[in-house]
Every structure is written in C-alpha cells, then in structure tokens.
Design brief:
The protein is of the alpha+beta class and about 260 residues long. It has helices spanning about 5-15, 55-65, 65-85, 105-115, 120-125, 190-195, 200, and strands at about 30, 35-40, 45-50, 100-105, 140-150, 150-160, 165-170, 175-180, 215-225, 225-235, 240. Helix 1 packs parallel to helix 2.
C-alpha cells in the first residue's frame, strides 16, 4: 500500500473504532511528489499537515509508529467534534453551550479570580454565525477571546508583579496553555532544565496562585520587536467551562486518543 492508502486506512480505522465510520470521508489526502498532504476538518477549522515520504514512513503508518500515533490524535479530534455537534441541541447550533467547551485549568482559575466565570465569558460573546471564530474584543484583563474546535481561546493579562505576565489559551494541536513573561532574558543553557518543574517554582507573581501543580512542558526564549520574552508552555490540563445538564449527552467527550487533549 502507498502512504496515501495507509493514511486513508488509518482514518477509517480511527473513525470506525468510535462507531462513526462515515467521518473518515471528511479527510482530504493527496500526494505531491515526495509529500503526502492531509487536511482534517475540526469544526470550521481545517488542520493541515504534511509528511515527507521516506523509507520508514510506510512501516511507521502500518505498524503504529510515532507518525501514525500523531495522526490518530488529530483524527480522533475530528471524530470527537463531529460527535459533539450531533449531540448538542438544535437551538445551540449558533452558540455552543459553555459545558461543551474546554479551556486550560490555569486559564479557568484566572478567569474565576477576576470575577469572570467561563460560562459568563461565553455568554458575552454574543450572537454569531457558525462555531468559530467569535471575538468579543476587550473585557477587563481578558482579550482576543474566541471559540474554536470546542475550546475557549484567549489571553488573560495579569496586573502587578515586577514583569508583565500574560496567560494564553492557544489553538495548537495540544490546546495548551502558555505563560509569557515579558522582558525576561534567560541563558539558553538553563531553559531545558526548567522543563518538568511546577510553574510557581519558576514564576513568582501575585496573580498566579501557588500550589496549583501546573507543570511546565517546554521553555523557549523569543523576541518580540526586539524585546526578549520567556514562553512557558504547560502540560495539557483541561477542564470544562461549565457543568453539563443532567440530561446532556456527553458521551463524545471520551473520543480522544494518545497523550494530547486528555479528558477534562
């Protein structure tokens, strides 16, 4: 089988394993030279990726290697969002309820501390067409809020402290939370040693509660218009934005594979 055939087979396997075989047909796969291009629809977002064909790709996809597992994660997200859409009441089609949305635990806790529960934030987004994106502009301490692929995205800017700190709920493949410390320069050799630490062992800020057990996965030094910023990406740690009604169908929440986007 060609790599394209193997990707198609993998999509069918993931969709069938969650009793939604028809969803596999949504995946677009084509080959251009030595590259397999894949487009996976997740809500109204299409996640595009490509894989270079090498001597190991076919066996990797056939035997469940690293690239196959990464694809399974992405494909299961597609299946989950399709099942989520089917489970939501018809009158929620233009405005997904807060209980159907996830957000990072730290982001949730900071919203609560500022007096803005996630469900209230979702209500303030207002009327809009479709699932995403929806931007409510600025509210106190919170900006660039949108709903994408079943997640609440945005930035919480913390006040106080010796450096400007912002916490971002980002739309990467993990749906991770990133803490950005402005005007912070660290020696490159020290950055890997911070990975695996608790956030409050690295960042001392009155807006970040201690003892939260937010684990730092990756540390990177970046520049913003010449200003050095320190980016701390946390391990995925999600919660639901609100309690689901007792009669709500939440069976779709279990549709997820791999290490990423663990069940909130």
């Amino acid at each position: 089988m060609t790599p394209t055939d193997l990707v198609r087979r993998l999509a069918r396997d993931v969709a069938a394993s969650w009793d939604m075989p028809h969803v596999a047909d949504l995946v677009e796969i084509d080959q251009e030279g030595d590259v397999v291009r894949i487009a996976i629809p997740c809500g109204e977002t299409v996640r595009r990726s490509s894989m270079t064909i090498d001597g190991m790709l076919a066996s990797d996809l056939a035997d469940g290697g690293g690239r196959a597992m990464d694809l399974r994660v992405r494909l299961s997200e597609m299946v989950r969002l399709q099942a989520r859409t089917a489970a939501l009441p018809r009158d929620d089609a233009s405005s997904p309820p807060a209980w159907s949305l996830t957000l990072p635990r730290l982001f949730r806790d900071l919203l609560l501390a500022s007096g803005m529960p996630p469900a209230v934030l979702v209500d303030r987004i207002g009327d809009y067409s479709g699932w995403e994106p929806a931007d409510i502009g600025m509210v106190t301490g919170v900006s660039a809020v949108s709903i994408e692929s079943g997640r609440i995205l945005g930035t919480v800017t913390l006040s106080g402290g010796t450096s400007a700190v912002s916490v971002k709920s980002t739309d990467d493949e993990d749906g991770a939370c990133t803490v950005v410390i402005a005007d912070m320069q660290m020696p490159e050799t020290t950055l890997p040693g911070m990975e695996g630490w608790d956030l409050d062992a690295i960042v001392s800020h009155p807006g970040i509660p201690t003892g939260g057990r937010h684990v730092v996965r990756h540390v990177a030094q970046r520049s913003w218009f010449g200003r050095p910023d320190l980016h701390l990406t946390l391990e995925p740690d999600h919660v639901w934005a609100d309690e689901a009604p007792s009669d709500a169908d939440v069976s779709w929440r279990r549709i997820r594979e791999g290490r990423r986007l663990r069940l909130a």
